[in-house]
Amino acid sequence: MERNAIIFDVDGTLWDSCQSVANAWNIVFDRYKELNGKTVTAEQAKSFMGKTSEEIFSTLLPDLEEQKMLSIMIECGKEEEVEIAKNGGKLFKNLEKTLQALSQKYDLYIVSNCQAGYIEAFFEYHKLGHYFKDYENSGRTGKPKGENIKLIIQRNHISKCFYVGDTQGDYNATKIAHIPFVYAKYGFGTIDAEVPFIESIEELTQKADSLFENINA
């Protein structure tokens, strides 16, 4: 019997890695004299979550010529993987218990705007990869989130699903992919739309069935 699917964002939906990300960026920034001692706080890193790496670093480093900015961006991405592999991030309360329960009834997926290697580092440190059937990210495909959601749906022959995310960008991506959106209200962002929401990740175990009942197959 074909199972329904839930597709998740990562940052602000499954965990908070902002401190590890900020630490990684600061390690890299310290290597470049032309950045004049620039540093980033965890709170500043949080404000960038949900954006692509190119969007983040063109905003963070607007005065650098493009090739230099891209080089630092790639270096920061690699350092993030090292930092996350070493220190992980802060999982939202009862995340693994929730994933375990959901995976018994639904197929679980991830689509994120992160760089290649980031989801793998998340899986490696927290040992959660076995709960997910597949994942995709803009760093690997070069495509925006809406197109990557479509890729996951096509690749896995998904007929009925919804996406769980916490930012306006996540919501906009579901409009491109033509799938329902569930707002992770506990996350980092806000949504300019009336949509179903959850106030904790574990709430999804109680609401998932009714959310699917409202989706036309």
Characterize the structure shown:
- Helix 3 (53-60) crosses helix 4.
- The chain is globular and about 60 Å long.
- The strands form 2 sheets. Strands 5-4-1-6-7-8 form a 6-stranded parallel β-sheet, sandwiched between helices. Strands 2-3 form a two-stranded antiparallel ribbon.
- The protein has 10 helices and 8 strands.
- The model has no long low-confidence stretch (mean pLDDT 95).
- The protein folds into 2 domains: 5-16 and 90-213, HAD superfamily/HAD-like (Rossmann fold), CATH 3.40.50.1000; 18-87, DNA polymerase, domain 1.
- With 217 residues, it is of the alpha/beta class.
- The protein is 47% helix and 13% strand.
- The longest helix has 22 residues, at 66-87.
- The two termini are 14 Å apart.
Brief characterization of the structure:
With 217 residues, this protein is α/β, with parallel strands linked by helices. Helices cover 47% and strands 13% of the residues. The mean pLDDT is 95.
